[in-house]
Design brief:
- With 210 residues, this protein is an alpha/beta fold.
- Helices cover 41% and strands 19% of the residues.
- It has 8 helices and 10 strands.
């Protein structure tokens, strides 16, 4: 008897099952099947009759679809999404940001795939990305999201242990992506967040009342 498929496709697999695609997209199996029939997702069938869906087509659909920007909800809280796979680093983010008296809500994911899903569900105000992530790495995640013109209001910050020359050797990052070298520069991040909160408050005060 075959073992059950993992919730997400493995890092070295270019495809995923219908069930995995449905979980990633947050839709029903029937919807995934219809998306395949409509050509929205690229797929094929194995010799055993099982459908396999190209992972890249699932991720591309996630990055293209519209999601509600957090700022559209009407409050001043910044939604910060952090893509970091190291548990100790995750805990450091939680503890440090939790001590700041700033209107910030953080969500932490451990892979690039989960990061793309989270952005597809709700666009954060700020995305912090490590470049070395399992499966879809930070480079691919940043490039995929940066290419989506619907996400221009989302700030992308890279916090990585990679040296600038190593980043350039891997194709570099978009010019408007902020890069910080690890260890995590919490002093700079706090200033960045504070400026973003101040900008949000000024924007709301200047907005005309209807």
């Amino acid at each position: 008897m075959s073992s059950p498929a993992p919730e997400h496709p493995q890092a070295d697999e270019p495809y995923c099952s219908t069930t995995q695609a449905a979980k990633l997209l947050g839709v029903s199996l029937g919807t995934v099947q219809q998306m395949v029939e409509d050509g929205v997702l690229e797929a094929w069938k194995t010799s055993g009759g099982h459908r396999r869906i190209l992972r890249e087509s699932v991720l591309a659909h996630i990055s293209r679809r519209g999601a509600l920007p957090h700022s559209a909800k009407g409050d001043n809280t910044l939604l910060v999404l952090i893509a970091e796979d190291e548990p100790l680093q995750q805990e450091l983010y939680r503890r440090t940001l939790g001590k700041w008296q700033l209107p910030v809500h953080i969500e932490i994911v451990g892979s690039g795939i989960d990061g793309l899903v989270a952005v597809g569900r709700q666009v954060p105000d700020i995305l912090i990305v490590d470049l070395i992530l399992p499966g879809v790495d930070g480079f691919q995640m940043v490039r995929t999201l940066h290419a989506n013109t619907a996400l221009t209001q989302m700030d992308i910050i890279v916090v990585s242990a990679l040296e600038p020359e190593d980043i350039r050797a891997r194709g570099g990052l978009p010019e408007d992506v902020t890069y910080y070298r690890k260890p995590i520069p919490f002093h700079e991040l706090r200033g960045y967040f504070q400026a973003k909160v101040t900008e949000r408050l000024k924007s709301r005060r200047a907005a005309p009342a209807f």
